[in-house]
Amino acid sequence: MEILRLSDLALLASEDRYSLQATVDVAVQLLRVPVALVTVIDTAKDRQVFVADRGLAEPYDKMHETPLDLSVCSHVLTYPEPLVIEDVLEDPRYKNHPGFAELGIRAYLGYPIYGPFDTPFAVLCVGDTVPRTWEERDMHIMSYLARQTTRYMQRKAQNILERDGISQLHVLID
Fold first, then answer.
1. What CA–CA distance (Å, rounded) separates 115 from 96?
2. What band does 98 get if pLDDT is binned at 50, 70 and 90?
3. Mean pLDDT of the residues in the chain
4. Structural domain for 148, as ranges
5. What gap in Å lies between CA 172 and CA 68, rounded to an integer?
6. Is residue 81 exposed (0-12), middle (13-18) or buried (19+ Cβ within 10 Å)?
């Protein structure tokens, strides 16, 4: 049995960054939000990595990562379903979460992205700096973009398997 590490997907390769960056750019435009991200949770290094981002404040716009304790996206992966927060300050689950204050986010909408074997490993999310009622249209757009990104990543993994002649696979998120 072969092990495919998340790093084997080469998420940071330039061609992938362009594709994923296009996704966050579309999300920003269609949802009219200042912030959009594709994040991967790297528990081995206790961090959240932004593989594509738009609208992050300094210094995160240059760092492309935060410590894991600032991650809201990790909650989307823990319970792999969309996370909808209209006003962080009014949501008892997240009003004291340090990531929102640090990144200046008041409203959040995050969707899981699935890799091989439908394992959630990344998150597509958008944020607004003011409270916001997320409309059905917003959730439909995000669901569509997350599904498209999932298909992209699953095709990428399948291409790696076929290229390397791997018949059995275990996915290790590192």
1. 31
2. confident
3. 82
4. 2-172
5. 18
6. exposed
Q: Give CA angle at 11 (9, 17), nearest 5°.
A: 145
Q: Which comes out higher in pLDDT, residue 145 or 57?
A: 145
CATH number of the structural domain spanning residue 55: 3.30.450.40
Q: In what order do the strands lie in the sheet with 35-42?
A: 65-67, 47-54, 35-42, 120-128, 107-114, 83-85
Q: Count the neighbouring beta carbons within 10 Å of the beta carbon of residue 72.
A: 24
SS3 assignment for the chain: CEEEEHHHHCCCCHHHHHHHHHHHHHHHHHHCCCEEEEEEEEHHHCEEEEEEEECCCCCHHHHCEEEHHHCCHHHHHHCCCCEEECCHHHCCCCCCCHHHHHHCCCEEEEEEEECHHHCEEEEEEEEECCCCCCCHHHHHHHHHHHHHHHHHHHHHHHHHHHHHCCCCEEEECC
Number of folded domains that form the chain? 1
